[in-house]
Amino acid sequence: MNIAVFASHGGSDLQAIIDGCKSGKVNSKVKLVISNNSNSMALQRAENEGILGYHISQKVIPDNGKLDNKILSILDENEIDMIFLAGYLKMLGTSVLQKYSNRIFNIHPALLPKYGGKGMYGMNVHKAVIEAREKISGVTIHRVNEKYDSGEIVAQAEVPVMPNDTPEELAARVLEREHSFLIEVVNDIISGNIKLGE
């Protein structure tokens, strides 16, 4: 299967998928990377690995319709089977969501439906989890629809919250689990345990 990864910043989840493919743990290929941030580490990681990388944002293409069409044409040209949003901080357009319905997955650093929605990303999530005195956090992988973090949950992994955790300590522990969990879930998709949309 050909995978496209969308990422806005560091791209460590992207690297986990790339490494899984290279090592043979995942029988797929990361065919391209799209970022809405020209300075993202994700684009640098793509370049380092010889993977096609694209900076597509409203700075480059101000018109939303044209921006969506550009994304669609790149996905089509590269025969993409599934899309992973790995810290991609922009809502995908309706035409992309429709064309790839049930084949777009997002990685969220908490156990949805808690701590999801607009503005709930990165350190904001971990701060909220600690402020609520949760004992368990984790990783959620869900399908993407028109509303932030509300698509069907396909898999979750729990990560304990330690009594004296800082948001940064919790974030590091969750991210470590994200990397291994991603590989498990991608394999479940490839094997058909998690169905892709038609």
Overall description:
The chain has 198 residues and is α/β, with parallel strands linked by helices. It has a single domain (2-191), classed as Rossmann fold (3-Layer(aba) Sandwich). The protein is built from six helices and seven strands, in the order βαβαβαβαβαββα. It has helices at residues 12-23, 41-48, 64-77, 94-99, 123-131, 167-191, and strands at residues 2-6, 29-35, 52-55, 82-85, 104-108, 136-143, 153-160. A seven-stranded mixed sheet has the order 3-2-1-4-5-6-7, with helices on one face. Helix 1 packs parallel to helix 6 and helix 5 packs across helix 6 (167-191).
Short note summarizing the structure:
With 198 residues, the chain is of the alpha/beta class. It is 37% helix and 21% strand.
- CATH architecture descriptor text: 3-Layer(aba) Sandwich
Strand content: 15-25%
Q: Residue share in helices?
A: 25-40%
How many domains would you count in the coordinates?
1
Q: How many helix segments?
A: 6
- What structural category characterises the helix and strand content? alpha/beta
What is the third-level CATH name, the topology?
Rossmann fold
**What is the total tally of β strands?**
7
Pick out the low-confidence regions: none
Strand order of the largest sheet: 3-2-1-4-5-6-7
- Please tell me the overall pLDDT: 95
N-C termini distance: 14 Å
Order of helices and strands: EHEHEHEHEHEEH
What is the general shape? Answer: globular
Under CATH at level 1, the class stands as Alpha Beta
The CATH homology group name: Formyl transferase, N-terminal domain
Protein name: Phosphoribosylglycinamide formyltransferase
Function: Catalyzes the transfer of a formyl group from 10-formyltetrahydrofolate to 5-phospho-ribosyl-glycinamide (GAR), producing 5-phospho-ribosyl-N-formylglycinamide (FGAR) and tetrahydrofolate.
Domain Formyl transferase N-terminal: 1-186
Pfam family, one: Formyl_trans_N
